[in-house]
Amino acid sequence: MVHCKPKTSTYIALSLILLALVAGLVSTLGHFASQRTYPIWLYLSVTVLLTVVILMLLVKMMAGFKTISAGDGKIVTMLPLRNQTKVYPLAEVIAWDEEKVVANKREFRQLTIVFSDKNSFTISNHEHVNYDDFFKYLIKKLPNKRPKQKAKQ
C-alpha cells in the first residue's frame, strides 16, 4: 500500500516560521506594555499584521495536514484534524489529473483526485512523501480516468 503524508521537514520549517512570528508579536506587545516609544498606530498595525499572518499560516498548516493511501483496489483519505477517514473503491474515482509547473528550474507537480461523492483530494510533490509512487499507482490502476491531455499551443 502506498501512503502519502505531509513531509516532516515542511511542518518543521513552517513551525519555526510560526514561532518567529509569535516571538515578534510577543516582543511588540511587550515593548508596548513597558516602553511605548513608538506611536500607537505603529503598534496596532504591526500587531494586526502579525496576527493575520500567524492565523493564515496556522490555517494553511491545519488544512494541509492530510494523508492518502492507495492499495488493494481502494483509496483511503484521512483528515486527522476533522477526525475523518473515508475509504473509496477505485470504481468511485471519477477523474484524476496532474498539473505541472516549472518555476526557478524546479518542477512543481500537483495531483487532484475527484471521487463520486464530489469530494476531491489534492497532494503535491513538494509537500507530501511517496508522491511518485502514488502517481504510478494511479497510472497503473486508473489510466482511463485521467482526462485527455490538451495539445500544447
Automatic annotation (TrEMBL):
Keywords: Membrane, Transmembrane, Transmembrane helix. It comes from the Bacteria. The chain crosses the membrane at residues 12-34, 40-59. This is YcxB-like protein. It comes from Mariniradius sediminis. The lineage of its organism: Bacteria, Pseudomonadati, Bacteroidota, Cytophagia, Cytophagales.
